[in-house]
């Protein structure tokens, strides 16, 4: 899956965020580090969504 990511240069480093996932962002001194941290946060976001599935719900994966 590919998601759009916005990268902003700031005086104290770089901020990367995914507008498709509200609240999913990362800041670091370099762009590479901000993107690495954002990948971890995105994975965590998807993992926590799976953990909140009500009992008896079947999870189906689709390609988008």
Provide an overview of this structure.
The chain is an alpha+beta fold and 64 residues long. The protein has one domain. 33% of the residues lie in helices and 22% in strands. It has one helix and three strands. It has a three-stranded antiparallel β-sheet with strand order 1-2-3, with helices on one face. The radius of gyration is 14 Å and the shape is elongated. The N and C termini lie close together (7 Å). The model has no long low-confidence stretch (mean pLDDT 86).
Question: What can be said about this structure in brief?
Answer:
This protein has 64 residues and is α+β, with helices and mostly antiparallel strands. The chain is built from one helix and three strands, in the order E-E-E-H.
Mean pLDDT: 86
Number of helices: 1
The percentage helix is 25-40%
How many beta-strand runs?
A: 3
Structural shape: elongated
Order of helices and strands: EEEH
Q: In this structure, how is the largest beta sheet organized?
A: 3 strands, antiparallel
Structural class determined from secondary elements: alpha+beta
Radius of gyration: 14 Å
Number of folding domains? 1
Ends apart, CA distance between termini: 7 Å
Beta strand %: 15-25%
């Amino acid at each position: 899956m590919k998601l759009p990511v916005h990268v902003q240069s700031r005086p104290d480093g770089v901020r990367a965020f995914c507008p498709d996932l509200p609240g999913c962002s990362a800041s670091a001194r370099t762009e590479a580090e901000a993107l690495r941290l954002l990948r971890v946060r995105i994975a965590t976001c998807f993992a926590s969504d799976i953990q909140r599935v009500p009992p008896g719900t079947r999870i189906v994966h689709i390609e988008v």
